[in-house]
Design brief:
By secondary structure, the chain is of the alpha+beta class. The protein contains 5 helices and 13 strands. The strands form 2 sheets. The protein has a 7-stranded mixed β-sheet with strand order 3-4-5-2-1-13-12. Strands 6-7-8-9-11-10 form a 6-stranded mixed β-sheet.
């Protein structure tokens, strides 16, 4: 399964999506900072599963309807940062979709995630990540989960990876930096968190008009049964 995640930088990169589909043929496309009002129902061969509605710049998930069957979708509000409270509240920072793989006859959950901005503390973002993974378990108990997006986590990623592993998940960085706009905040902002998947590769794709570079996640199902996944995450 191939999943592309892209922060569009306030919708600026929206016109690049069809070319991404044409070049990389992703099975799922996860977006952040997209204008959800009037969002296209189709992008290339991809169909819109869901987008957030609580704020103008939000999240969206597209999928390949010829390969996957849409089952359940839900968006979630996570703990707000001071930035959210004072400026432009981000009511929803997570969209999770449960899909059925028609070829493998397996269900899984894929999600688009956008953590609090850099003005917030890493501790808040860790709280959001932990809460997001718990919410995704709610729409697919024991199923493989892949959460991708803009984690806004510029430093101390080893600590984040350790916390994620303690919760039963794996954090995977791409092969090169995904954010280079500011001198002191360059690095891997766009990440993948998973359980029940082997992440074979996370590739940073060429720069477009956004300040984030898109990432391409290549994932395969593990042989773990649902009971083993539940045990790993303590469900």
């Amino acid at each position: 399964m191939k999943v592309v995640s892209y922060n569009l930088r306030k919708h600026r990169a929206i016109d690049e999506l069809a070319a991404l589909d044409e070049r990389y043929s992703p099975d799922v496309l996860c977006l952040q900072e997209v204008e959800t009002t009037g969002l296209a129902e189709h992008v290339g061969r991809l169909q819109l599963a869901h987008s957030t509605t609580g704020n103008r710049l939000g999240l969206a998930v597209y999928f390949r309807p010829d390969r996957y069957e849409f089952e359940v979708v839900q968006s979630f509000a996570l703990k707000k940062s001071l930035h959210d409270h004072l400026l432009r509240p981000a009511h929803e920072r997570l969209v999770g979709v449960r899909l059925r793989d028609l070829a493998a006859d397996r269900e899984f959950v894929v999600a688009s995630f956008h953590a609090a901005p850099l003005t917030a503390l890493n501790s808040l973002r860790r709280h959001q990540i932990h809460a997001a993974l718990a919410e995704l378990q709610g729409i697919g108990p024991g199923l493989p989960i892949l959460m991708v997006g803009d984690y806004n986590y510029p430093v101390f990623k080893d600590n984040l990876a350790e916390k994620v592993r303690e919760a039963g998940y794996e954090l995977t960085l791409s092969d090169s930096r995904t954010y280079t706009r500011y001198k002191f905040f360059r690095g891997h902002f766009d990440l993948a968190t998973s359980v029940g998947f082997d992440i074979e590769r996370v590739e940073t794709l060429p720069r477009g008009s956004s300040d984030h570079l898109p990432i391409l996640v290549d994932a395969r199902y593990t042989s773990a049964a649902e009971s083993e996944i539940e045990e790993a995450i303590g469900a």
